[in-house]
Design a protein that fits this description.
Layout lengths: L5 E2 L2 E2 L2 E4 L19 H9 L2 E4 L1 H4 L9 E4 L4 H5 L4 E4 L6 H18 L3 E4 L10 E3 L7 E3 L3 H8 L3 E4 L3 H10 L3
Parallel strand pairs: 3-4, 3-7, 7-10
Antiparallel strand pairs: 1-2, 5-6, 8-9
Helix pairs in contact: 4-5
């Protein structure tokens, strides 16, 4: 087994969606517990920096479903070219922009060059989001937090890519 990648004098840390760690913080009050043994190893190694951007910015749990509107790229929301709306039509774009900024601050504070985020989320999605119709239709895209993290050099992986991220951390390639 190779030595874990180091960031300064400590083990490389990873920003991880709190719902993947079993916290019931998703919009419907549920968790999205990955159950992956790698998460438990990372926890034991002190790698995990847990965060739910929506809860960090003050959204309650449960809360209305939210989707990107007018885009499939959270970067457009961050730039003010598109919106994030609740199922009832309320524009929550400003809160999602602030949630992304809080996530970036937390990643920087934790020395995280990597993030493991929940795919499909209008905040954390990295390979897909929902199309804005609230019909459950997935489309390729990324959420607001993912966009801001990526634009600031943080590599984002979805929960289905945990093995790839673990290989990078264990092998030292980044």
């Amino acid at each position: 087994m190779s030595t874990p990648t180091k960031h300064g004098s400590s083990t490389e840390r990873v920003l991880v969606s709190a719902c993947l760690l079993g916290s019931p913080v998703r919009y419907n009050g549920s968790a999205k517990l990955s159950g992956h043994a790698v998460l438990e190893r990372w926890r034991a190694e002190g790698r995990i920096v847990p965060l739910c951007p929506e809860v960090a910015v003050g959204f309650p749990t449960p809360r209305p479903a939210v989707e990107l509107d007018g885009t499939t790229d959270g970067g457009d929301v961050m730039a003010g070219r598109a919106k994030v709306v609740e199922e009832g039509g309320r524009d929550v774009s400003d809160l999602y922009r602030e949630a992304a900024r809080l996530a970036l601050e937390e990643a920087r504070r934790g020395g995280c060059r990597f993030a493991l985020l929940t795919d499909g989320s209008p905040s954390c999605g990295s390979s897909f989001v929902y199309d804005g119709s609230f019909s459950g239709r997935r489309v390729p895209g990324r959420g607001t937090t993912t966009a801001l993290l990526q634009e600031n050099g943080v590599q984002v992986f979805s929960e289905t890519e945990i093995g790839a991220l673990d290989a990078i951390l264990r092998g030292g390639a980044a």
